[in-house]
Amino acid sequence: MNTSDSCVKIVGGGLAGAESAWQVARLGLKVQLYEMRPTTNTEVHQTDTIAELVCSNSFRSDDKTHNAVGVLHEEMRRCDSIIMHCADQNRVPAGSALAVDRIGFSKCVEKKLSEEPLIQIIREEIQEIPEDWKNVIIATGPLTAEKLSLYIASLTGTQQLAFFDAIAPIVYKESIDFSKAWFQSRYDKGEGDDYINCPMYNDDYLAFIEELTSAETIDFKEWERNTPYFDGCLPIEVMAERGQKTLAYGPMKPVGLTNPHSDEPLEAVIQLRQDNALGTLYNMVGFQTKLKHSEQVRIFRKIPGLENAKFARLGGLHRNTFINAPKLLDRKLRLKNSPRIRFAGQITGCEGYVESAAIGLIAGIFAGFEVLNRQISLPPPETALGALLYHITGDARADTYQPMNINFGLFPDLNNSMNGSKPSKKIKGRERKSALAQKALRAIDQWNDSIQR
To answer: Which phi and psi angles does 397 have, rounded to 5°?
Structure first.
């Protein structure tokens, strides 16, 4: 075997690229992982560390019995995921969710990769894929540099899709007024006090909505004007424009909480989630925004409890790009018109940290098996890994393709088939989710055993 042919090249040191590199190395193969930072920086990254978390610090629900993303967490753990290992090592309180100290997390990933002798991290911007690179994974994510983006567009022969993603502000805990705010998780999940809550009553809430819908936002560049938002990460002011009660039924819903400072009915609640292991920083949950910085400070300091808030970071906006994966990729994530190249992570159109890493995990395994000239089956569609893979590589409609998180709607329907036959009764609600979760974890164990890494 030619040495250069056996070395897998991975472009992009985000979550997907890091996971791909780890999985390839686990198969005993050499990896070159290219990361452009700090040689070339982006507008939103703040460090040059591998797997930096740009937006939230949350990996969302860790419930492996009733939640699809929790099932995905567990499947990845069973596949020896570096991302899940480092997330677990750097966990911070967040109720039933898995949230991490973002700095500790990325340092953990970089340390493990750097200590693996089969992985070489190269700090260099790749602007196009050389012809002599035979086994390549592009995992450059939503912030793919302009020259590589143009190369990918020319390679695929299609116009790239794009959408905007916004970033939530981070507040210093010491600046929060706890005569108005209090600690509590919704329905007392987790430790029961993993979130800081700031109350809003009727007049507060109506005034807040008015401020959001009339505030100044950042100006768009010409090429940005027709770029849509991803519905799963709408700026808070955009949600406010959709209706007066949108936020109260969304990220500011006042349910499952008891205000110890007042008996007045809550109209809405702003939650803040711990952002670092020290517990000194908290991010404003669901408060991604494109408001101008001065407007953020002015408006957010009108929230009860945040009147004197000091911000470690204000919100921002960046463009996410992704390819039309159902049209362009085969089931093993290879570009149909250039199968030496695979894509992984958010650039494929999956949405979310865990989903991105999951596709990186699968891409790394596929690439390694191909180099070793070994056959490998796809992860079963009953698994979260398989459901996500099947969705982005053909089950989704190419003409309406948009980014999506993992959800049980992507899994095969239990009510149509169970072990080849219809169930004796229709399974609904939490029972259905539990059954899907159990079936997924059994299937991932069987798949892991079958591929014999």
So the answer is: -75, 125
Single-letter amino acid, residue 282 = Y
Same structural domain for residues 8 and 151?
yes
Query: What is the domain count for the chain?
Result: 2
The answer on 131 and 21 residing in a single domain is yes
Could you say which of 319, 336, 366 is where a domain stops?
A: 319
Q: Which of 284, 319, 354 is the last residue of a domain?
A: 319
Q: How far apart are CA 288 and CA 144, in angstroms?
A: 21
Query: Residue 452 corresponds to which amino acid?
Result: Q
CATH for 153: 3.50.50.60
Residue 278: left if φ>0, alpha if ψ -120 to 50, beta else—which one? alpha
Q: Is the pLDDT of residue 395 over 90?
A: no
Token representation of residue 335: 């570009």
Domain shared by 178 and 76, yes or no: no
What integer is the mean pLDDT of 289-318? 92
Residues 138 and 116 in one domain: yes
Which DSSP symbol is given to 379?
A: P
What's the confidence (pLDDT) of residue 385? 98
pLDDT in tens, 52-80: 998 789 999 999 999 999 999 999 999 99
85 to 53, 82, 273, 381: CA distances (angstroms): 15, 5, 21, 24
Q: Write out the residue range of the structural domain in which residue 179 sits.
A: 166-319
Kindly report the number of other CB atoms within 10 A of residue 173's CB atom: 19
My answer on whether 96 and 212 are in the same domain is no
How many angstroms separate the CA atoms of 312 and 170, rounded? 5
Of residues 116, 140, 132, 144, the one with CA closest to residue 23: 116
pLDDT digits (tens, 9 = 90+) for 226-281: 666 666 678 999 999 999 999 999 999 999 999 999 999 999 999 999 988 889 98
pLDDT at 8 over 50: yes
Identity of the highest mean pLDDT range in 21-25, 39-43, 153-157, 393-397: 21-25
